[in-house]
What we know:
With 416 residues, the protein is of the alpha+beta class. The protein has helices spanning 2-24, 128-133, 221-232, 235-283, 288-303, 305-309, 329-341, 359-379, and strands spanning 41-53, 65-76, 81-89, 115-127, 141-155, 162-176, 181-194, 202-218, 315-316, 347-352, 387-391, 408-413. The longest helix has 49 residues, at 235-283.
Amino acid sequence: MLKKLFKIGMLAGALLIACSANAQEKEYTLVYPQYGFWSNWSLGGSVLYSWQYEHGGILDWRDGSNIGASLFFEKELSHIWAMRIVAQTPGLYHGWGDDALPIGAYNRDGIRGYDRYGKAGVDFKMSFQGLCKGYDPDRRGNLYLFAGVGATFSRDDVELGFIGMYMQGGLGWSYKVCDHSTIFVEISDDIAADIASPIHQWHDNTGMVSLGYMYNFGPTQSDLDLIAQRAMLTQENFDKLNNEIDGLRNDLRDAATREAKLRNRINELEANQNETNTQIIRGAAADNGVADSLRKVIEGYETNKHNFYALPFSILYDVDQYTVSEDQMNKVNAIAKVMKDNEDVNFEIVGYCDYSGSDAYNQKLSEKRAEYVKKLLVKRGVAEDRLTTNGKGKSMSFGDIKNAINRRVSFYRVNK
């Protein structure tokens, strides 16, 4: 028996080396996600046909056969390895017909007969497809090797029950029917021993063929959320964010240029006003109409000055919402990055609402939108004194009053 086990071990080792060499020759883009302990557990069971045989040969059926059952708790460790806890009733040890042996009788090779009532242990499974072909979440069929150890409960004509130990190994094939259901078939063999003297008291072998079902619980919700966050940390998303940041920098430069032109124009108008007033006083012919006209032009420029400082995008909202949705969060990240890179830039955050709801309610909602965005920026490292907030309610309209563009938060550069 030890020679047989040695040959089986050598064959399995050669197969592992061959699969490893094949895997090293290929490159795969998919990487097995990092799951927590409570993710990817499975619960399943199987029915099995078992037979025990003498040391004289595996095809010697004279020692009996029976029907049994198994219960599995399995944890997926990676796309290659899995661990499972096994509880099994391999069937009673007896013969059929003329070949039946009484409990405690001796077989032809002098080995005492035993009844195997049950066993429990731990198996480790290794996937050949996972080892040779890498991680593939869409793979359905899977060929695997498993081996394990555990305790077995037996009896003979002397003792009503005693605990022994067993070693087992086998080959299985599974098919993933859907995300949570897997069926499998396995063929295995084990050898049992008295626990008092396991080296010298190996007393029986059991061969088994099993057909079973496994329910896969899958990842926990916390692991799914973590994987989704990691999926955002891709080179494509980083490039997109960097492009948005570069665009913001360009917009800030353009806004600064427009600001300088506006200031020059205001200074020019103020100079013209002063010159006109001087001429009016000197000529003793005050013309207040000209001065008032110039003053209105200046006030108009001051009123519209907000538009020259506004960023070219806003954060948009669903109806009656003030928190920032996931698809709008990249704008918050981009503004935070620009403000940390440009310490002289300050913003007024202004919230707006559409025309549904009362004036008082919309005023409070617009203020909550602006304050929430400010908290997000402060949380990302922007100094609080560089941000001010304001709420306009539904006092201003951008296009159709029912459009989503009216539910927004806009950013205006502030000079301090």
